[in-house]
Every structure is written in structure tokens, then in C-alpha cells.
Amino acid sequence: xxxxxxxxxxxxxxxxxxxxxxxxxxxxxxxxxxxxxxxxxxxxxxxxxxxxxxxxxxxxxxxxxxxxxxxxxxxxxxxxxxxxxxxxxxxxxxxxxxxxxxxxxxxxxxxxxxxxxxxxxxxxxxxxxxxxxxxxxxxxxxxxxxxxxxxxxxxxxxxxxxxxxxxxxxxxxxxxxxxxxxxxxxxxxxxxxxxxxxxxxxxxxxxxxxxxxxxxxx
Length: 218
Ligand code: E4P
Hints:
Order of helices and strands: EHEHHEHEHEHEHHEHEHH
Oligomer: single chain
Distance between the termini: 42 Å
Helix content: 55-70%
Bound molecules: erythose-4-phosphate
């Protein structure tokens, strides 16, 4: 399973990258706004900075919602750095834009996926990734992990190469649940990735090992 970090915060991206297990980064307009990054030039410079840190897939989302606008903006984003993956919302114009980019060999991440049908359309259009939003489905009383599993099964059954990128991951338990259903990627907050490390027996076991070492070695 690949791990992406779901943030535009450079300190968190560096920390996750330094762990040595980071496979990429996802951003969205809300995450960019949270970092206070204003204006097209600054945003694009920020994407390049993220690419330079991780040297791996970085999803950068288009703001346009019309086909021509998405093509223009997505092409500009893709030209920034070879690591950029153009993130496109799952709307009709977006599906058309994904097909365009797929035909040009430009990688895409179809975002805001909340159903198997949406994932199917994105895969047929040639999306590199589809992003089902786990946490947001859980928020409305549905089961986001079940959707991830259904998409994984559907892609395997029909042989689609599109990768299932579990998004809107809120905690460590979400990651583990996505592992169980075979998600290709999980994009997570840093806290959820670090949560995978936690086990009381690791903490107590290490404490005992060190105490025993010092009893003999001072
Ligand atoms: C990532 O691709 C998504 O934009 C992100 O995971 C959404 O997460 P949220 O539902 O916590 O905002």
C-alpha cells in the first residue's frame, strides 16, 4: 500500500518524507487555503516546492469547472513538474478532461468520488487515481471503507489499471480498514500515519530492554 500525506503544510510534508515511507502528497483548495497560500503564482510555487521535497506524486487540483478551463489549468499544472498529478472533480466536464489528459499521457486523480458509478466513469476515462472520500461518507452515516472495497473489487473484476486512493482519511483506524479492503493508496493526515507506530507493548518492551541493558552496562 502506498502512503500519501494529505496536506499542503511543508513542515508536515518534510516530517513524513523524513520517515522514509512517503509515496506522495495530495492537496486540495481547502488545504492550500489553510496554509494561507494566496494567488496563482504563489500556489504554483508551493506545488513545485512540495515536488522538490518528496520527488513523488503530488496532486494539484484545478479550480476551473468547465472543460476548456480544466484543460488549460491542468496543462499548466502538469507543466510545473513531472511529479504533478492533475486533480479533477468527478463531474461531467471533469470526466471529459480526464479523458483528454489520459490521451496525452498526463496523470490524473479524480476527486470527490462518493459512488462506484463515479469511480467506473473515471476509470473508463483513464484516470490514474480515483479518490473515494472515506471520512465524509462516514460523516453522513454511510460507510466510506465499504465504498473503497467495492471500487477495488470492481477494478479487479474488469481489469482497470486505475488505482484506488482512499481519501478523507481521518484516523489510523481508517488506514487499517483500507488495508483490509485492498486500497492501493491511502492519503492521510500525518497524525494518522504516525498512529500506526503506536502499540503499548512496543513502548513497554523497549523500556524493559533499555532498563535491562543499563542494569548490566551502567
Ligand atoms: C484528498 O485528496 C482529499 O481532498 C481530502 O482527503 C479530503 O479530506 P477531508 O474530507 O478531511 O477534507
